[in-house]
Amino acid sequence: MNPRPPRLLDDFDRLSVERAIAEMRAGRPVIITDGDRSGLIVNAEAISDSLAQALSYLIASPKVPADPLKSQAHLVLPSARLQRLGIDRQTPGSLALPRLDPERIAALALKVDAKADAPIGATSVIDRAGLELASLSLLLPAVIVVPLAAPSLAGEALQSVRAEAIEHYRRGSAARLAIVSRAPVPLEGAEKTEFVVFRGGEGLRDQVAIVIGTPDLSGPVATRLHSACLTGDLFGSLKCDCGDQLRDTVKYMAEHGGGVVLYLDQEGRGNGIANKIRAYALQTTGFDTYEADAVLGLGMDQRGFDFAADMLRQLGISRITLLTNNPQKIAAMRRAGIEVTDHRRIFGRETADNVHYIATKRDRAGHLSDER
Question: Three-class SS string for the chain?
């Protein structure tokens, strides 16, 4: 008997989730299955008159269950957004969509002063998996779900993914990080610096470890987990202190025996640049940074740091002194098996534009300050 040839593609569940992320970000519908149930999922950002018309045609077709209780298209929103709509709820919920009206959907998902205009229903496994897929795709946490009688649509090349695969995707992502390139990159004030690029994890985004000097790996290594901030790190935004913290960290490490900065692709506390700028627009009207995220249906912090611990281990680091003002990062590293022997606070400049932001992080998220 001939041996079975090796497969070109393995781990079909992971593959299907990553393809579904790409489809969602491109604005295309995907199908999520749960046993013998399935649903067509569209992010609220993607809904247009033409797509609404196509979905309306589908709802009227035999591919949708005949039972009205099972065939009702609905909009799924997280608890934070429902609370903004005037519903006191701690779990996601759904609103019926008897007619796919893009204007109504946009108002329920985004409008600041919108109110719930229909009863809130419970969510299914497929509904909740749709919200998680939107989060993984860095999109608005609002999805339209059209239940289907069968998981396939003839003539439509739609990506299908199991709800269970979406549910378990984050947990397995850290183990797939691998170093893909590294090279010396001298920096101002830290000429002996190496950039080490990792690939894998959620959405296959690249993550970077910046090794400053020659840190002694046998002892605690000065380490910072720095989530990417395009506006602050690159353009010097006055709305935050991220750029100052990054540059001051590099300077400190260069002057104190070296260290490692993990530059993590988790813009906007894990919400993505588009949602971050939406939140900035809301902040101009008086919301603080966390209130603005809540208006959009986002949690206080969507970031995870398990993969950062794996990056450290691949660099041969198991003990660190963490440069951070965020106690959650200290706890996350310890949960992930990294020994945090000490921590050091790192501060940026306070400006008229960021003083409220810094105080809000201290008062609402427990960030450390020079007053604590």
Answer: CCCCCCCCCCCHHHHHHHHHHHHHHCCCCEEEEECCEEEEEEEHHHCCHHHHHHHHHHHCCCCCCCCHHHHCCEEEECHHHHHHCCCCCCCCEEEECCCCCHHHHHHHHHCCCCCCCCCEECCCHHHHHHHHHHHHCCCCCCEEEEEECCCCCCCCCCCEEEHHHHHHHHHHHHHHCEEEEEEECCECCECCEEEEEEECCHHHCEEEEEEECCCCCCCCEEEEEEECCHHHHHCCCCCCCHHHHHHHHHHHHHHCCCEEEEEECCHHHHCCHHHHHHHHHHHCCCCCHHHHHHHCCCCCCCCCCHHHHHHHHHCCCCEEEEECCCHHHHHHHHHCCCEEEEEECCCCCCCCCCHHHHHHHHHHHCCCCCCC
